[in-house]
Amino acid sequence: MIGLIQKDLLLIKRSMGTTMLILAFLVIVFSASMGASAGMAMIPIAFSILILGTFALDDTAKWDVYVLCTPPAKRRIVLSKYLSSSILIAIGAAFSAIAAVVALLIRSETWSLEVTLTFLASVGLACCMNAVLLPLTYRFGAERSRIIFMVLVFIPTCLAVLLQGQLPAIASVDEATIMNMLALFPVFGILLLFPSYFISKAIYTHKDF
Amino acid sequence: MEKLCLEVQDLTKHYDASEFSLDHLNFKVPYGSVMGLIGENGAGKTTTLKLILNLMRRDAGTIKLFGLDNIRDEGAIKQQIGVVFDENHFHELFSPADIAKILRSLYQKWDDNLFQQYLRRFQLPADKPIKTYSRGMKVKLSIASALAHHPKLLLLDEPTSGLDPVVRDEILSIFFDFIQDEEHTILMSSHITGDLEKIADYVTFLHQGRLVFSGVKDDLLDSHGIVKCNASERKRIDPKWIVKQRTGPFGCEILVNNKAAVRHLYPELLVDNASLEEIMLFHVKGEK
């Protein structure tokens, strides 16, 4: 299974390494001018989406046909994708923290609660996105899953904007509750990956190649 | 009784979309032998291989490799199998060194030295990405990867398809070396019957998802022949010898299943030997 994780990370390094360096540079510049929170929030999410690139490259090579002829069982092949995605999010989180520190140093600011909550929220969001995207990708393929995901995010967002002010007022949540929710968001995201894995495993196991 | 490396019984798979069915396929591959799986495009050769490898779910039947069930003991079986397809399935960004890194952790018996030996023998640069390789080089890399973990069984799905005769000959000699050890077995699907005539001990012939013949290749070639005659001579031949026939403007060609008997009973008729390709063509394009 380690070989499969190495495969994904090597693919990303070979195909997207330069792009990520440019992205990292832009994020640091963006953070330095707009604030640490603005740039750092993007990084774990950008890293989490990289796993979709490995699905697309696997489809191009028809890699699944080959890897299913090797000893690892289907469940381990799926598990290796989830572990690769988790490693990418962890790397993204590390880069995010580094980018925030660099931006704060440039702006002569200190690490604040806002930066911490932004960091935790972005990591949580990255985990939640992959928890939804990975089963969609196993079911529909890399290209269609991106479109489906955008539709799933786009439609409720549009509806919320259009119906703003027309819906009955929801009881307001106090600041402390919001802060607790943001702090626990990564935990929620990680927990969501477990049922996501079982759904992906079921989809992959029942596929014909 | 011969020990069996692969045993397929009543294997059935139906595709709803195309109405194609692999229909109760039965064949056996003894240890130390080469089984050629032949048939026209769409006959069911690749489907058979994919079912053996559990890449697809079968509708009925059983498959045993090394005496083990191909689903229940899948992991143990796949440690002992090497697979080569007609097209490359490695990412083109990878080099052979990258592939070794990946496969090393997947196979318990992965042998880096052996892999390097094969790379040198096939003159494959270890550090160049696969996208720079020719088609023949990609097939050789697949073979090197398949052989480097000391498999007992090679499953080959049209490995020489699209290759020039020189490379095909080179690849066949690699397979020939592999089976010198009586413990090694090959199941090779191909529509290039000339390759199988050179290397195969047994042949399984599929046509439209059905088994036409499975047995010793030499028995098939020794028994079948082609009679060239006119229409009146054709009527004299006992139908029990006739497999299929083709009628042209200049006469009939008839595939017979016992050329020795036909030669004896009808000495005036010309009975030629039939190649695997001709036997296949008669089954596919001939009339009953």
TrEMBL record, chain A:
InterPro entries: ABC2_memb-like (IPR025699). Pfam families: ABC2_membrane_5. This is ABC-2 transporter permease. The keyword Membrane applies. The keyword Repeat does not apply. The chain crosses the membrane at residues 12-32, 38-57, 82-106, 118-138, 147-166, 178-199. Keywords: Membrane, Transmembrane, Transmembrane helix.
UniProtKB/TrEMBL annotation, chain B:
Signal peptide: none annotated. This is ABC transporter ATP-binding protein. It holds the Pfam family ABC_tran. Keywords: ATP-binding, Nucleotide-binding, Transport. GO terms for molecular function: ATP binding. The keyword Transport applies. InterPro entries: AAA+_ATPase (IPR003593), ABC_transporter-like_ATP-bd (IPR003439), ABC_Transporter_VariousFunc (IPR051782), P-loop_NTPase (IPR027417). SUPFAM superfamilies: P-loop containing nucleoside triphosphate hydrolases (SSF52540). Gene3D superfamilies: P-loop containing nucleotide triphosphate hydrolases. Residues 6-233 form the ABC transporter domain.
